[in-house]
Amino acid sequence: MGNSGSSSSDPRLASATRAFTQTELDDLRSLFASLAAKSQSNGNHTSPDVFKEYIGIDGPLGDRVFDLVSQKRRDQRITFEDLVIAKATYEKGTNEDMEEFIYKLLNVSGDGTVGRSDLEVVLTSMFDNLFRSQSSEPKAGSYKEIVEVFINAANSTSDGMSFQDFQKWCSLLPAVRKYLGSLLMPSDSGSQVPKLVYPDNIDDSQILLRKEYAWHIGGALSPTELDEWKLLYHSSIHGLSFNTFLGNMLNDGPTVLIIKDREGDIYGGYASQPWEKHPDFYGDMRSFLFQLYPEASIFRPTGANHNLQWCAVNFTSESIPNGIGFGGRVSHFGLFVSANFDQGHSFTCTTFASPCLSKSSQIYPEVIECWGVASARADQDRTHANKGTVLDRFKEDRNMLNLVGLANSSE
Q1: What is the pTM of this model?
Q2: CA–CA separation, 319 vs 229, rounded Å?
Q3: Which domains, from first to last, does the chain contain?
Q4: Which residue of 192, 222, 248, 351 could cross-link 226, Cys pair, CB 3.0 to 4.6 Å?
Q5: Taking Cα atoms as reference points, which of 232, 233, 310 lies closest to residue 269?
């Protein structure tokens, strides 16, 4: 397959071919034959329109993908050899190979510099592709605000974004990295958006977790955790009440805690373990902190310590502050909300290599919401296990203290 304009003389072809098994190469030949047939090219090449339909991306980003895969020949065709080389990078290449390709992909203008306008075009195209099916009449510029939020996480200068800054940007926005790294993959692993489930009596405008934010957070999670997220607590409905919050944690799985403070900033944390009473830090290395507005970022555990999750209830010792939090150390958390749910703080912390998540270290929550994260299988597995709410379990703890005459010592 191929023609005189193909890349068969490209030294990368031999190594790219070796990256695949014979069965995989046969599958690639079948794929190319199908694309070439749709292109009506007598089996010689794939046309731009057919290729962009295959990857599901049109517009400037689709044009840029086609340009790179076709080796920038400008002949409006992709050969079988082109497809093998590109697929080898996407499916078999090293992480650095992939990131170099994505970095070039971001430069949709083709001027050699990844600038702010390039990022705007790429992100707008991504969101349009991800969410167009969920919006009957998408409006021009409807993603302008969310695009700004994602660009704000980038360290871009007038000279553009360097490759090192791009890598940092990808670490803060794993969903972007996952999406752009899956355009030529056989599955749509970068396109999963959790289904957000909440009561009919809650207006959409009250929900902090818009679908773009859910996709952003989900970029740091496994596919099994992206099925359905259920709203368990919302302060506008349930009031700013710690007891109500704990009582609504009906699932024993992970949760997404989101806070909007009086300054308008939105941030929170992914809790990998249930919110349960502990006198010390607990949790595991799957937890992380995030920012949603005015910039979007995710901060994963560094391994510096295991001060991951905090949930203290009805302790009287000043060394055990009552409330919920993540990271840092006691009284100097990466994120903390007091048991009154009326104030808290956020400090730079080594647990997640995170900055202060708010404009100031002292925070005053205006809205707090929490979502239960669980796959359908996990829901079924937990049906008959750990029955009762968190408060029920706290009551059981107190009953046990009463039995041994120690109840008053904890108050």
Answers
A1: 0.86
A2: 34
A3: 12-180 (1.10.238.10), 197-396 (no CATH)
A4: 192
A5: 310
